[in-house]
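Inverse folding, one chain.
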């Protein structure tokens, strides 16, 4: 077994990425404090051809050297917008027919492994602040909530880890239904 060189990975150019068919998933980040978390989510979004990221509230925006440390250029490929209000973004994408799910621990949350996608639908995933999570007001506007099962002593995962897990799971489910 031989480790592949970067030039053997056949990665898309920035231009190819921008014109490629995207995975019908939008990421909404609300009040994310850590610039490294933001950059990491951009990199995950690039890896899975995510359509767009909405940066809401206090979430910092590119260009930013701390975001760039973990994004490694993904801020140049993944479409993004900044909005002050996560509630307005949720309402806007829902009006466009997007199904919106918060990734949060709530009553009646759907465990990620039980979450079923509908063919032909676009999804938005809302990730909240590192300490407070997704606000109750945002949860109330969503179509539902997805919870990542956890069996240890901690009550949460890092936002960038949560985003990676959930985006990968939806990516698999969307591509297996084609």
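Residues assigned per position:
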């Amino acid at each position: 077994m031989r480790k592949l060189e970067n030039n053997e990975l056949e990665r898309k150019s920035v231009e190819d990425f921008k014109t490629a068919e995207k995975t019908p998933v939008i990421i909404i980040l609300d009040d994310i404090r850590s610039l490294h978390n933001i950059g990491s989510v951009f990199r995950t979004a690039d890896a899975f051809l995510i359509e767009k990221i909405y940066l809401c509230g206090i979430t910092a925006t590119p260009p930013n050297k701390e975001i760039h440390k973990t994004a490694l250029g993904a801020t140049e490929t993944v479409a993004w917008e900044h909005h002050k209000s996560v509630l307005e973004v949720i309402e806007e994408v829902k009006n466009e027919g997007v199904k919106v799910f918060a990734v949060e621990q709530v009553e009646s949350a759907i465990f990620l492994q039980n979450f079923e996608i509908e063919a032909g639908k676009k999804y938005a995933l809302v990730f909240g602040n590192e300490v407070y999570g997704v606000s109750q007001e945002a949860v109330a506007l969503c179509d539902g909530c997805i919870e990542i099962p956890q069996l240890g002593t901690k009550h949460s995962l890092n936002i960038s880890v949560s985003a990676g897990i959930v985006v990968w799971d939806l990516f698999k489910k969307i591509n297996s239904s084609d």
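The CA atoms of residues 164 and 171 lie 10 Å apart. The helical segments are 14-19, 35-47, 65-71, 86-95, 136-141, 159-176.
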